[in-house]
Amino acid sequence: MLATERRNQIAKLVKTEGSITIEDLTNMFDVSRITIWKDLKMLEERGFLARVHGGAMRLDKLNPEEQEFPIRKQSSSLEKKKIAQYAAKNYVEDNQILFLDGGTTVVEMIPYLNKKNLTILTNGFFTLIKAANYLSDINFISLGGIFRKPSYTFVGPDTEDFISRYKIDTAFVSAYGISLKDGLMDPNPLDMEIKKIMCENANKIFVLIDSSKYEKHSLTTFLNLEEIDHLITDNGAPAKFLEELKNRGIAIDIVKI
Questions:
Q1: Which residues contact 141 (CB under 8 A, 6 or more apart)?
Q2: What is the 3-state secondary structure (H, E, C) of 195-211?
Q3: What is the C-alpha to C-alpha distance for residues 18 and 23, in angstroms, rounded to an integer?
Q4: Exposed, middle or buried: residue 213 (CB in 10 Å: 0-12, 13-18, 19+)?
Q5: DSSP one-letter code for 214
Q6: How much is the pLDDT for 143?
Q7: How remote is the C-alpha of 100 from its chain's centroid?
Q8: What is the 3-state composition of the chain as percent helix, strand, coil, each rounded to the nearest 5?
Q9: pTM of the full structure
Q10: Is 54 left (phi over 0), alpha (psi -120 to 50) or beta?
Q11: Which residue ranges form the domains of the chain, and what is each CATH number?
Q12: Which of 146, 191, 170, 199 is nearest to 98 (CA)?
């Protein structure tokens, strides 16, 4: 079979099935893993799919619970704004290098980042748009890559390789849900990988999460509870949950709404 024909078939399989593993493809086409890896890389560059750990997935594949950014932004909007404002005013200092994820809570920090000589890295499309309206004196580094519309973020191996080069003072991240058993969770492995790498490269990890997210589960864990340095939430958060986090050594600030 010609390489072009094999790649066409792989693209059709991913489109039909939503995702597929490298192991399945090597067995199906009787070729090596490196050959399949090259096929997936070329198909990703042409916009047919996204490579993930162990295989590939369709770019527009959604999990049932995942909503697009503009819809999610409307949920608990007051809590998100208050939490983000508190974080920006109390935990951002001059001359810092920060990572802001593309979440609907973290983006609300933008209007309050009035410190000097900040450098901010983000893969969030709306974070960049909002920054263009508010921040003229801050160094912004956009993490390009594959644009993923449900989350309005840039993701994929190229993005992961790029951000791996940077060491960050503080990472500010949000999540779809937080669980005592499973930690911080997101519905998509592509977005999860970006957050995971940035948290690994940060000196401190701040989690901004509103009270609607507690014991809410999703597809993948990107951060264990023990890795969190500081959590900022609102006063609707469950007291027993917060007490358990404190017992695990996590600093917590509660913002009154």
A1: 119, 120, 121, 122, 166
A2: HHHHHHCEEEEEEECCH
A3: 16
A4: buried
A5: B
A6: 83
A7: 9
A8: 40, 25, 35
A9: 0.74
A10: left
A11: 3-57 (1.10.10), 69-255 (3.40.50.1360)
A12: 170
User: CA–CA separation, 212 vs 144, rounded Å?
Assistant: 30
Residue that the structure tokens 């500010």 belong to: 172
Question: Which residues, at least 6 apart from 40, have a Cβ–Cβ distance to it below 8 Å?
Answer: 10, 22, 49, 51, 55, 56
Instruction: Tokens for 218, please give them.
Output: 């999703």
| CA–CA gap between residue 193 and residue 51 (Å, rounded) | 12
Report the C-alpha gap between 147 and 194 in whole angstroms.
Answer: 13
Rg (CA), the chain: 19
d(CA 147, CA 154): 5
Provide the residue-wise pLDDT of the chain in tens; the chain has 257 residues.
788 899 999 999 988 887 889 999 999 999 999 999 999 988 887 777 877 777 888 765 545 455 454 445 445 488 999 999 999 999 999 999 999 998 889 999 999 998 999 999 999 988 888 888 877 778 888 888 888 877 788 888 888 888 899 999 999 999 989 999 999 988 777 888 899 999 999 999 999 999 999 988 777 789 999 999 999 999 999 999 999 999 999 999 999 98
Residue type present at position 253? D
